[in-house]
Amino acid sequence: MSEINETEEKRVAVMFVGGLDDCKYTIKILDDLGFPCALDIAEKMGPQYANRGYYIVTMPEDNAEKAKKLMEKMIREDLDINSSPENIDDKCPACGAELSVDHTECPDCGLNFG
Ligand SMILES: [Zn+2]
User: Fold this and answer.
1) What is the CATH number of the domain that holds 78?
2) Is this model's pTM higher than 0.70 or not?
3) pLDDT at res. 57
4) pLDDT (tens digit per residue) in 52-107
5) What is the number of domains present in the chain?
6) Which of 48, 54, 89, 102 has its CB surrounded by the most CB atoms within 10 Å?
7) Is the domain of 77 the same as that of 46?
8) 35 CA to middle of ligand 1, Å?
9) Separation of 71 CA from ligand 1 center, angstroms?
10) 112 CA distance to ligand 1 centroid (A)?
11) Same domain, 88 and 75
């Protein structure tokens, strides 16, 4: 794989938009897959992202499609390995915390599911 020449105008694809931790997770996966990628602030994509604390993960557009497919596959496998489906029923609609079946309220944000 060739190195990225920063002086050259390269088209980049946005691989992910979200919080810093999720971006780092995306970067780790892309890194593991051998794709060079970069972390940037989402505000660069437009004013609608300003002041939200979002970040983006970008990489050269050439490999983006391939990388996305591999990344999705890897995330699926990663989730299969790290979660036990019998235990995890759902995610909290408010904060996204993983919930086990016996939770009547979110352990993270306290949302009550009745
Ligand atoms: Zn919650």
Assistant:
1) 3.30.70
2) no
3) 96
4) 889 999 999 999 999 999 999 988 887 776 665 554 567 888 898 888 777 788 88
5) 2
6) 54
7) yes
8) 33
9) 27
10) 9
11) no
